[in-house]
Predict the structure.
Amino acid sequence: SPVQIEVGKKRISQLIGCDISAEQIEQILSALSITIVSQDDVNYIVSIPTDKADVTREADVIEEILRIYGFNNVPIPSRLSTSIATSEKIDVVKIRKIISDVLINRGFNEMMGLSLIPSATYENFGDYKEKLVLVNNTSNVHLDAMRPELMMSALIAAQYNINRQQKNISLYENGRSYQVDGSNEEASYKEEEWITIVLSGEQHSADWRQATQPQDFYSIKNAVQAIFSRLGLHTFQTSELEDVRFGYGLSYHRGPNVLARLGSVSAGAKKAADVDQDIYYAEIRIAPILKAAKKANHQMKEIPKFPSSSRDLALILDESVQYQEVEAIIKKNSGSLLKQVSLFDIYRDKKHLGADKKSYAVSMTFEDPEKNLQDKVIDKIVAKVMSKLEQSVGAKLR
């Protein structure tokens, strides 16, 4: 049956941008076999012939009128005005695009992992087995669960490449994880979006101009920090990662709210995916990143006129001491001259350090925008920091 559409008479002039007489409009509609069923002072009710399947809205009818009237007959105004649309809401698609651009520009390729995964993969893999959302997949009985996290998907992609002699891997994925909490009627389901990154092999192919360099912890850390920097996220805490999937690594968070996890994939995780070379992995949570990006303050700063100065501390600590405790003490006792503090190495050795001991290598960067820093000023700050570390967490210099 022919579709009937209501078309406002004033709306025709508004959309086209000029006044067209009622006589002209009716002639054009008649020529297009669009029948005017009824009309009043405000609207036309028109019947659309069935061969015009794409004419379904008021705007479509007006476009048909304009097509016959002629685009060239619409006068160009001497003055054009426009407005800039703004929104307080963060554009999720734009954030994804920004992150993808950062990674692609660093040489990464995008991968797409299956949301389904064999439940047997998580048989001896922490508590993920209890969180599996099981699926009755009759077409492939092995893929019987939704993936509860994305590392295994990354390792499967890495294994596929390695088995085909593609051992230098730089991949990322924008995907979702699915978990269940509880059982039967009381079960609740959690779906979360992530950006994941996986690195392995060499940073570049063998070349006569330069020696090859393997991917390492700092490669994955630099990739994550590049994303954070591009989004304007500079304020977050860092702590040593405790996760069965990682051999060692760091967690970036704001209080209890985790932004990202990164580090070396554990031997158990590699064994589950049948991978035998070093793999480095990072996962970035999209939801808190969006929230943090909304509050991010992008500011340009003048290049410092005076050079910065760095000091490194190799601290021997009890295994129970977390990095965020050390960082908080350093920041609290260093004053405004401290511009950056970072953890660049974690070392454990029972023979040299003792049982239940570890070593943190911490770098501190100092800078004064008004003058050159003198060594005695920095040494005084470092001595105060070391004294506080010894009193608060029992730190010793290695």
Notes: The radius of gyration is 31 Å. Residues 150 and 177 are 6 Å apart (CA to CA). The chain has a mean pLDDT of 89. The first helix runs from residue 9 to 16.
